[in-house]
Each structure stands twice: as structure tokens, then as C-alpha cells.
Amino acid sequence: MSSCSRVALVTGANKGIGFAIARALCRQFSGDVVLTARDPARGRAAVQQLQAEGLSPRFHQLDIDDLQSIRALRDFLRKEYGGLNVLVNNAGIAFKFDDPTPFDVQAEVTLKTNFFATRNVCNELLPIIKPHGRVVNISSLQGSRALEQCSQPLKEMFCCETLTEGDLVELMKKFVEDAKNEVHEREGWPNSAYGVSKLGVTVLSRILARRLDEKRKADRILLNACCPGWVKTDMAGDFGSRTAEEGAETPVYLALLPPDATEPQGQLVRDKVVQNWWLSAMGFTP
Questions:
Q1: The pLDDT value given to residue 286
Q2: Does the pTM exceed 0.90?
Q3: Residue-wise DSSP of the chain
Q4: In the annotation, is 194 catalytic?
Q5: Is the pLDDT of residue 177 over 80?
Q6: Of the listed 189, 194, 277, 278, which one is catalytic?
């Protein structure tokens, strides 16, 4: 086991917001920081860049689309550290606005990574999160906008306090299936695969936080989603208005909430402020 027993992990951390989060945690987190990337060469190059700045991250390969890769990481963390203190689920994808890829393909590919793979990471790593652990899922206000564009029946399902993880998974599968059958608009879905994927992440975060409160209340683990804002990255291109460092501020804030903190829990946070993401979609004024 490592001489340093505390560890924070960032997925998709070889560039963009993930890299900025890893850098900030290297500076502020009292423990080891594990930078993960799908491509080992790019991941190690990112580690070398931080080492040149006098920081000391570790690298571990992770392809969140590969369940065996997630489990190999889980086993590494269990062996080296006896668990995990901080998990930042940053890895994700987005098609460009002008990408000619058919919508049904965009829906399947985007949901596979942003929702289903992120859920797999949570399912494999949440059981090894230590007491007072922090989990941050990178979401987006695009998810809230997608909710506003959903039909009323879909809005009510997504906002239901008793929605289960299984229910949510079926909703995400239905969106992909409806897109394949070219009936997603008729079925009440918006024309944004990215937005629906991030709506899924936001709602999943609420469900998982509720489960942690039910089953591990004494451990005081906090799990939240956050919107980093529109950041200048490979994903957003020149449309972004924030630097990666600015985008990293809220995720890092949530990752470093003090041990005695009891909130936020299961929320969507932007600029360190909890967002009432469901209110406007359901016709309420915050």
C-alpha cells in the first residue's frame, strides 16, 4: 500500500477541464492524485507536464467505455490505497455542432460514454469510497435545457423524487431507441443527445446521493453534479467563454468540501451555487 493513504482520482484528465482539475488537486489535495486517460501516451505526457511544474501526480490508464478497464482501476485503488477519497467523473464526449453524423448515431455514442459509462464508474468505485469521501460528476446546464424541452410526461418522470436508477436507465435506453427509430421528437425528446446525456448524469447524481444517505449515512459521503460552464476546450472549441482553470473551480470546490460538511448533496452546482434545475422546467419560479 502507498505510504500516502489518501487519494483523489480524475477521469479523462489528460487535457481540458480534467487536466485543470488534476493540476488544482495536485496543489490543494492532501494526498496522491491519480490522473487517468484512455490513451496511455497522452496520459503520461500530461503527467510529465505537471511534473515539470513541480507537481507529482500518478498515472493509471482508464477507458470508461471498457468495464474491465474500470475494474482494473478499482483493484489498483483497493490494493494501493485501500479505497478512494475523491472521485471526479470528468471523462465525456460531445459531437461538434456541425458534425454530419446521423442523430441516432450521435445519441447512441454520446449516451454510451456520458451516461452509461459514467454510471459504470460510479457502480464500481462508489463501494470503495472511504468515509467523508467526495464524488463529483461533471454535468452541464445543457441537461437542464434538455429537460425544459422534454414533454410534460418526461419532465415529470425525470423530476420524480422516487425515480430509481433502474427507471432512469430505461429512460436513457428509450431515448436512444426512439432516436434510432426516428421518433424521438414525437415521443417528447429534445434534439440534443449531449443535453439528454447530461440530464441523465444530473438525475443519476441525485439518485446515488440518496442511496448513500440511506445506506452509508454515518460515512458522510457527499456526491454532487456540477456545471463547469462553457469552457474553451477541444469539446467546445472557440465557443467557450471560460478558461479550463475557471471551469475547474467548482469541481475542485466540491471535491475538497471539508470533512464536517453535510451539503450540498445530490445537487447540481454551478459557480459554487446550487441550481434548482427542475423548477423552471416544471413551470415554477425559483
A1: 47
A2: yes
A3: --S---EEEESS-SSHHHHHHHHHHHHH-SSEEEEEESSHHHHHHHHHHHHHTT---EEEE--TT-HHHHHHHHHHHHHHHSSEEEEEE-------TT--S-HHHHHHHHHIIIIIIHHHHHHHHGGGEEEEEEEEEE--HHHHHHHHTS-HHHHHHHH-TT--HHHHHHHHHHHHHHHHTT-TTTTT--S-HHHHHHHHHHHHHHHHHHHHHHH-GGG--EEEEEE--SB-STTTGGG--B-HHHHHHHHHHHHT--TT-----S-EEETTEEE-HHHHHTT---
A4: yes
A5: yes
A6: 194
